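Task: sequence design from structure.
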């Protein structure tokens, strides 16, 4: 229910803010039937389906609320006309009481909303009978519904911490009554006193794209690439391996003499989750003494430490499970920290041939972190025709990661190379996007540079997962679709649609979040085409043009994505020959849908969509403590300044779209909502990095806002400098650079920010 409360609050604030702006400016002309239908979907259907476990009470409340809505709007329609009826319906739909009542199944909330609406109707008609038709009660209605909402909220939660809410609710109710008596506001929203108009400068002259842009774009890309590839990962890792299965499940190490052993390090090969038992031999009793019954080797392609703390000469190691496991290297470490080479190491040559690769200090630099154990490992399997481990996402992203492994080997640098390249490529793409929006070089530079200082952009560029790859393709989708909406030449429109379709194919074949983006570009496309048809004589007059666009869209958004998605499964058909790649694409897609629907395991770093907005729960990808008590941490979180300013920019762009009719803002807002809204209805375990596709749109939105400011260059420079300062400040916890422990803990600005 917290998710519904958050959604309701945001939706109501946005709606009433925009409505008040329209009333104050005198441009409000009522609502269309389409807008009312959209309002109903947003305020009734969305909260209802956001509720995970719906019962009969939810549907009863929904039915009652729908009946009240129809009766309420019909009463206004009969008395005051169609415009009044639709306006009353919209006001009722954005009352928080009904929204939460439908989602929670609380019929009393719906009835309380009816009470507030009835008070509004009674007051309105009472005033109208006295000849005061200029009175509007928007502020009264907002305060009344919010007051009841807050009072009932405290009744529901019954928590001491909500005492302030009931106080606020009572104050809101008293204020509503006071405003109703004062009759202060007019129905057309115009006040008697004129407001002082603040003129803003809008960039209208588009500068020609030239050498200056190319130089700035390349320099910015080079600087970001240098930062991304800095300490990206080790170029070396143990490669030779020894397998243990069947009868070959144990080994005995002879250290030559009795030695104090601190721990044993296992560099696990391409299979995670090995269980081992450790024993030492007692020559006095002639028996093996069990030291560790069930030690876990959890992470593939990483050093796994098993503590021992024993004085011994002979060490017995037994793999306790029946599966086959692979060990690439084994290191015995003494109490003094020195490596001990067994005298019988020649019996296990694959385990003791790369001892120099054991690091003095283990960190992200030498091993796997977070989902690399899935995506990086599967990329290696693709490359070597091995059984495929990770199949919960489409294969293209792992295929791209495998290109880095093919070039640099199965090393940390090799498996992270593709993500680093994709993260770097987003910089010139962001520059082009911001340049297209603003038409100004300095604004494009500010937007792209701001994106370079985004924490999550940097972290995801340095980890071998598919998220950065998918984000690159999704950003390409929105950029090419925006270019389509700005293009006047028909032949070039076809090119932009084709490029957008190819980007869609790549995005969907990498991660299914590309489907969310596809819905967004579909809405943007139809909104733009219908608007252009209306400007040029209507749909019927443009049938020949629409037919050509339809044909291009079929090729771009159906045939090409279907072909690329199916072809991405070729590796599956080579490993599992019982099915063709098309059959694998169909069956694995069904499996993915089932898997993600049921992935609800708890996780300490999971977070909900509304928590992403405030950067509440970072994801700790890696954390290691050095011998001198410093910390090497890699955390995924957003730059708090960009997230805060980005949300403000989103709200401003929403206003520019709905009130100022900005086509650019329409594209950006729809793109953002298409990437965020689906997560409102997903109840599986999710993490903050799934917000990254939305964050990529903040910089274009900020650029669109800068264009409306009086001093865009100065304001943009101040914002960039502040964001860069935060990037430098948080660099240790997003890059893995070993830093003073006290400083890392000082960066934990919120109670939920844990970097150790």
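Answer:
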């Amino acid at each position: 229910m917290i998710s519904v409360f958050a959604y309701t609050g945001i939706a109501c604030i946005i709606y009433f803010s925009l409505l008040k702006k329209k009333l104050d400016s005198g441009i409000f002309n009522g609502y269309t039937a389409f807008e009312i239908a959209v309002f109903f979907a947003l305020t009734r259907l969305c909260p209802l389906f956001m509720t995970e476990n719906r019962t009969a009470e939810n549907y009863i409340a929904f039915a009652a609320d729908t009946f009240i809505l129809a009766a309420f709007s019909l009463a206004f329609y009969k008395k005051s006309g169609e415009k009044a009826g639709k306006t009353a319906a919209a006001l009722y739909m954005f009352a928080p009481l009904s929204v939460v009542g439908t989602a929670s199944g609380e019929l009393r909330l719906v009835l309380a909303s009816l009470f507030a609406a009835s008070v509004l109707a009674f007051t309105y008609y009472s005033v109208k009978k006295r000849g005061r038709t200029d009175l509007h009660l928007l502020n009264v209605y907002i305060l009344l519904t919010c007051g009841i909402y807050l009072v009932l909220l405290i009744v529901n939660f019954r928590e001491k911490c909500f005492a302030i809410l009931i106080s606020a609710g009572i104050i809101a109710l008293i204020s509503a009554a006071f405003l109703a008596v004062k009759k202060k506001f007019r129905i057309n929203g115009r006040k008697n006193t004129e407001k002082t108009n603040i003129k803003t400068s809008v960039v209208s002259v588009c500068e020609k794209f030239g050498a200056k842009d190319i130089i700035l774009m390349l320099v910015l890309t080079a600087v970001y690439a240098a930062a991304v590839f800095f300490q990206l990962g080790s170029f070396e890792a143990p490669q030779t391996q020894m397998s243990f299965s069947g009868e070959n499940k144990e080994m005995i190490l002879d250290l030559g003499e009795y030695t104090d052993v601190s721990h044993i390090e296992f560099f696990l090969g391409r299979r995670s989750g090995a269980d081992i038992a450790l024993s030492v031999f007692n020559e006095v009793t002639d028996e093996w003494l069990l030291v560790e019954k069930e030690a876990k080797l959890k992470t593939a392609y990483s050093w796994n430490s098993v503590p021992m703390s024993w004085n011994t000469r002979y060490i017995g190691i037994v793999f306790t499970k029946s599966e086959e496991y692979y060990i690439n290297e084994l290191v015995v470490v003494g109490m003094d920290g020195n490596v001990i080479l067994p005298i019988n190491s020649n019996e296990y040559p694959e385990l003791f041939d790369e001892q120099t690769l054991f690091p003095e200090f283990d960190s992200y630099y030498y091993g796997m972190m977070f989902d690399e154990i899935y995506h990086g490992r599967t990329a290696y399997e693709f490359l070597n025709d091995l059984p495929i481990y990770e199949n919960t996402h489409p294969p293209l992203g792992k295929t791209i990661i495998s290109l880095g492994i093919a070039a640099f080997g199965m090393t940390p640098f090799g498996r992270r190379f593709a993500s680093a390249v994709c993260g770097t490529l987003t910089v010139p793409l962001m520059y082009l996007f911001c340049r297209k929006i603003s038409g100004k070089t300095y604004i494009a530079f500010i937007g792209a540079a701001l994106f370079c200082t985004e924490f999550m952009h940097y972290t995801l560029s340095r980890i071998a997962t598919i998220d950065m790859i998918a984000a690159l393709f999704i950003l390409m989708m929105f950029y090419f679709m925006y270019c389509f909406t700005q293009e006047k030449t028909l032949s070039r429109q076809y090119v932009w649609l084709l490029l957008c379709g190819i980007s869609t194919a790549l995005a969907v074949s990498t991660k299914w979040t590309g489907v969310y983006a596809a819905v967004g570009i579909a809405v943007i496309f139809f909104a733009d085409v219908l608007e252009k048809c209306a400007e040029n004589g209507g749909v019927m007059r443009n049938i020949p043009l629409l037919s050509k666009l339809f044909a291009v869209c079929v090729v771009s958004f159906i045939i090409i994505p279907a072909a690329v998605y199916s072809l991405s499964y070729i590796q599956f058909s080579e490993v599992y020959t019982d099915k063709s790649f098309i059959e694998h694409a169909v069956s694995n897609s069904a499996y993915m849908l089932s898997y993600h629907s049921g992935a609800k395991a708890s996780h300490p770093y999971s977070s909900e969509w509304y928590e992403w907005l405030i950067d509440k729960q970072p994801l700790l990808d890696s954390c290691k403590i050095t011998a001198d008590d410093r910390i090497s941490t890699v955390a995924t979180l957003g730059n708090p300044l960009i997230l805060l300013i980005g949300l403000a920019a989103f709200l401003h762009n929403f206003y520019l779209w709905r009130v100022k009719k900005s086509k650019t803002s329409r594209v950006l807002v729809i793109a953002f909502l298409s990437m965020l809204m689906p997560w409102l209805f997903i109840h599986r375990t999710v993490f903050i990095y799934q917000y990254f596709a939305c964050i990529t749109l903040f910089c274009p939105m900020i650029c669109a806002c800068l264009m409306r400011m009086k001093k865009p260059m100065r304001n943009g420079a101040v914002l960039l400098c502040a964001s860069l300062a935060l990037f430098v400040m948080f660099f240790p916890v997003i890059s893995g650079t070993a830093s003073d422990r006290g400083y890392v803990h000082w960066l934990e600005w919120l109670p939920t920010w844990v970097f150790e």
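The beta strands are 242-244, 250-268, 274-282, 287-297, 303-319, 325-334, 339-340, 619-625, 630-636, 739-740.
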